[in-house]
Each structure stands twice: as structure tokens, then as C-alpha cells.
Specification:
396 residues; mainly alpha; Serine Threonine Protein Phosphatase 5, Tetratricopeptide repeat; globular
């Protein structure tokens, strides 16, 4: 029988994964640590950061709510609220709350890195560089701080400095992204395609088994008009990775290759026919290819698997409208609204369906309900953005 892992060991494991830029592994360990020790506020804070980076809003809300209930005025609980503000794009309040926590714990590496992440999101390059420089003064071998500092230097136009930081991170942890690939992505998103091509080529020479880099390289070649080279790279991708749909299906979707994406996701569906995510992905690809009836059949299956899922019902209603089954579209979207009165897309498709049915007054009523749902959503967001729905103001 395996010996149980202690909460402190789980926290240490999660923290190490977080600083190695592996938020998924970090979150799993930190969630297990919280289950074992629900009072550990540092675990709350790091788990909240991971949930934010992974776009897991529900988990983030649960973690922050529990931190408030545990000890609302403790520095790390205040820091949890800062992460919640970060999620809501209230960067000023997030900064203020973290600065408040740092006044109590001035040399806390986790708080300093969190502040740097706020500046990454807000685009405040100089402040971000200073924050991650402060983090590296506390921990010179911190992989995340080196990687993040590199990203900020790149945003400031210091590409040589960025590459140096990426190389340091790679030296410290060989598992992180190739430095030339990372710099290539920086050039790519700045629209600097020729330098990006060079960096992706260097990355592939060093690590030819990374499919993501091949797709970026292919996309650059297509964009700069190097068609023959692009065809060669496409064939290389097919040869190297074509038999692994889990590896390439998302990349085909990301890089707008719908025919290949459809084939790959169909293969995923064959082995995972009850996966809601795969069903939705495949349905959307069928619809994009003009195969609306195929998409309808898939989402009908999803509704059978999850009959109380308002999003699934709304999608089926939308597809029914597209296929010309207007009465069914109206019934399905009404059903979705009955489950979730704030399902805004359902109101949109209901209004369209009613209009096609010649029921203009009911359609206008659906639009009025949509506006009320939007107003409720905005009011909830404003309350969360300002912090009025959660903790007392702790910045002063």
C-alpha cells in the first residue's frame, strides 16, 4: 500500500510545477493539497494563479471564496482576491491588492511573481520587467521568472535580451519550450514573419519532434508566399505526426486547416464517442464544411448524454434553425432558457426562429428578454470587477 503524500509535499510539488511553467500538473497537486489541508492559504493562492492561467473560472471562484471564508484579511487571502481581479481584467485593483499583501510579506517570491503576472496581462512592460527582476533577485534559478522576463523584453523590442532569458530558462529546465521557438512565436505575433521563419527553423534543427513548431513554420511559409517549401513542410508534418489525432487535431483547428481537422477529430470521436468536447468540436467542423445534418446528429447525441445542458440545447437549436427546422429550433431554445434564464445565445436564436415563424411580437419579446439577461450579466460583472460581491476593501 502506498504511503499517503503529505499536504506539504503536495504543495511543494505543485509549486515546483508552477515555476516550471506546467500549470496543469501544478493545479492537480495543489488541488490535492487543498483537499488534505483546506486551511493552507499559500496553497489557495497558487491554485488560484493556476486556475486563472488555465482559464478555469469556476475553480478560481471556489478557491477564492474559500480563502475569503478562511481568513479574509490574511495577506495570501488578499492575494487570492487579487487573482480574481486579474481574471476580471481589473488590473489596477489586482495590483493594489498584491502590493498590500507584499507590504506584509515583502520578500515573498510567490507574491512578487503574481505581481509580475498582473503586469504581463496589463501590458505594463517596465513594471513587469522590474517585478520579475525582483523575483530573480530572490530566486536566480526561477524558470518561470526567466521565461516571463524574456516575454516582456520581447514586447519592449529587446529580442536579443528575450532570447538570452529563454536560453537561461531552457538551461535550468530542459523540458521548457525551445528558446528559438518561443522567440519565433514572439516575432510571429508581431507580424515579423521572416525573423520568425528563421527562429522556427533553428528550433526544428534542435528539436524536430515538436509538432507545434512545424505548424508555426508551415504557417509562416504560407503567409510569405513560399508555396513549394510550405508543401514540403506539410508533407513532413503528415509523415511525422499524421497518425496521432490527439497530437495534431487541435493544431489543424488552430491553424485553419479544416479538412485535416475534420479527419483528425473524426478519428478522435471513433474512440471517444461520449466526450462532449469532441462531439462539439466535430459538430462545428461539420457545420463549417456545410454538413449541417451531420452536425445535428452529433449534437442530438450530446443532448441525450446531457439533457440538462443549456449550451448543448442552444447549439442544437441553432443547428436546427440552420437546417430549416424552425419550429424545433424555437422549442429547443425555449428549453435551454428554462434551464438557464441567462443563456444569451438561446434568446438570439429563439428570436430568429420566431421571426421565421411569423411571430414577430414574440420575437420582440425574446429580444427584450435578451437585453434583460445582458443587463443582469453586466451588473454581476460590475459587482465582481469592483469587489463589491466579495471581500472588504483591503488595499488601505
Amino acid at each position: 500500500m502506498e504511503k499517503p503524500v503529505s499536504p506539504n509535499a503536495l504543495l511543494a510539488r505543485g509549486r515546483a510545477a508552477f515555476y516550471a511553467d506546467d500549470e496543469e500538473t501544478a493545479f492537480e497537486s495543489l488541488a490535492a493539497a487543498l483537499d488534505a489541508d483546506p486551511a493552507d492559504l499559500r496553497c489557495h493562492y497558487l491554485a488560484a494563479l493556476c486556475a486563472n492561467l488555465l482559464s478555469r473560472e469556476e475553480a478560481l471562484e471556489d478557491i477564492c471564496r474559500h480563502a475569503r471564508e478562511t481568513a479574509p484579511r490574511q495577506p495570501l487571502a488578499i492575494a487570492c482576491e487579487a487573482v480574481r481581479c486579474l481574471w476580471l481584467a481589473n488590473y489596477g485593483r489586482a495590483e493594489g491588492l498584491l502590493q498590500s499583501a507584499l507590504r506584509s510579506l515583502p520578500d515573498d517570491l510567490d507574491l512578487v511573481v503574481g505581481l509580475g503576472i498582473v503586469y504581463e496581462y496589463s501590458g505594463e512592460t517596465e513594471k513587469g520587467v522590474a517585478a520579475f527582476g525582483r523575483a530573480l533577485a530572490l530566486d536566480p534559478d526561477n524558470v518561470r521568472a526567466h521565461s516571463s522576463l524574456g516575454g516582456l523584453l520581447s514586447l519592449a523590442g529587446d529580442f536579443d535580451g528575450a532570447l538570452a532569458e529563454y536560453c537561461t530558462a531552457k538551461t535550468l529546465d530542459p523540458e521548457v519550450e525551445n528558446p528559438h521557438q518561443r522567440l519565433g512565436r514572439d516575432y510571429f505575433y508581431e507580424g515579423m514573419l521572416e525573423p520568425a521563419l528563421g527562429e522556427f527553423g533553428r528550433a526544428l534543427a534542435e528539436e524536430p519532434d515538436d509538432p507545434t513548431c512545424w505548424f508555426y513554420y508551415l504557417d509562416c511559409l504560407r503567409r510569405v508566399g513560399k508555396t513549394d517549401e510550405a508543401i514540403g513542410v506539410y508533407e513532413e508534418i503528415r509523415q511525422r505526426f499524421g497518425n496521432d489525432p490527439e497530437l495534431v487535431s487541435g493544431l489543424y483547428e488552430q491553424f485553419n486547416m479544416p479538412r485535416e481537422a475534420l479527419t483528425a477529430v473524426e478519428r478522435l470521436y471513433e474512440t471517444n464517442p461520449d466526450s462532449p468536447d469532441i462531439i462539439v468540436r466535430l459538430a462545428r467542423l461539420h457545420r463549417a464544411a456545410g454538413r449541417v445534418n451531420e452536425a445535428v446528429k452529433l449534437v442530438e447525441r450530446l443532448v441525450r448524454l446531457a439533457p440538462e445542458d443549456a449550451e448543448a440545447l442552444t447549439l442544437l437549436g441553432e443547428l436546427s434553425l440552420q437546417s430549416g427546422d424552425v419550429g424545433r429550433a424555437a422549442a429547443l431554445t425555449r428549453q435551454a432558457i428554462a434551464i438557464d434564464p441567462d443563456a444569451q445565445n438561446a434568446y438570439v436564436h429563439l428570436a430568429d426562429a420566431l421571426l421565421f415563424l411569423g411571430r414577430q411580437q414574440e420575437s420582440e419579446q425574446a429580444i427584450a428578454e435578451l437585453e434583460r439577461a445582458r443587463r443582469r450579466a453586466w451588473e454581476r460583472y460590475q459587482a465582481r470587477f469592483s469587489g463589491q460581491d466579495s471581500a472588504p476593501d483591503t488595499q488601505n
